[in-house]
Amino acid sequence: MLARMSSEPEQQIGVGTPDGFQRLWTPHRMAYIQGENKPTGPGAGDGCPFCAIPEKSDTDGLIVARGSHVYAVLNLYPYNGGHLMIVPFRHVADYTELTAEETVELAEFTKQAMTALRNVSGAHGFNIGINQGSAAGAGIAAHLHQHVVPRWGGDTNFLPVIGHTKVLPQLLADTRRMLADAWPDVGSDASSDA
């Protein structure tokens, strides 16, 4: 047991009271923590952001590219700069519910995302995956989406590991524009309205 070494009365730490910690404030994360933009139910009409995003312009929706069955969009709460998601237009929750055409285009868009991210950022590697269902960590389990997270040697340091904070040096709108411009043109309906 540690004994208090001061004879001064204990103080309550309040706003502005120095306590020896340095803080990196990330107020934009509060929207995610509080569940902003999460669907209120399982259906497409229940506030699903992945159903609403394609109705916006590419710039407003942070859409990098559109295909016939899927689209690539920047994650609003990225693990790393350039963190994309490949999302089917159709509101579907389970990977096994994808049509053959949706499955093929999801795979092709994943390859295109990797190419664009390598060209723009020199990514050394990628984490690619689907959190299938809320029990597996899906933040929006009602609408399937695959993450494509670029990685670089040494990109994990004390901030994310200990401080649970990520420093992202570029605005999402700028990242979206750069990736849309670098998206490979392989005959898809990719769009980059700036």
Short description:
With 194 residues, the chain is of the alpha+beta class. The chain is 26% helix and 13% strand.
Describe the structure.
The protein is an alpha+beta fold and about 190 residues long. It has one domain: 2-Layer Sandwich (HIT family, subunit A), CATH 3.30.428.10. Helix content is about 25%, strand content about 15%. It has helices at about 30-35, 50, 60, 100-120, 160, 170-180, and strands at about 65, 70-75, 85-90, 125-130, 145-150. The protein has a five-stranded antiparallel β-sheet with strand order 1-2-3-5-4. Helix 4 packs across helix 6 (about 170-180). The longest helix is centred in the middle third of the chain and has 22 residues, at about 100-120. The protein is globular and about 60 Å long. It starts with about 30 loop residues before the first helix and ends in a 12-residue tail after the last helix. The model is unreliable at about 1-10 and about 190-194 (pLDDT under 50).
Share in helix: 25-40%
Q: Which architecture would the CATH scheme give at its second level?
A: 2-Layer Sandwich
Estimated radius of gyration: 20 Å
Task: State the name of the first-level CATH class.
Answer: Alpha Beta
CATH superfamily grouping: HIT-like
Largest sheet: 5 strands, antiparallel
Mean pLDDT: 79
| Contiguous helical run count | 6
Give the ordered list of helices and strands.
HHHEEEHEEHH
Q: Note the overall shape.
A: globular
Main sheet strand line-up: 1-2-3-5-4
Number of strands: 5
Strand portion, in percent?
Answer: 5-15%
Low-confidence stretches: 1-10, 188-194
Q: What name is given to the CATH topology?
A: HIT family, subunit A
Distance between the termini: 61 Å
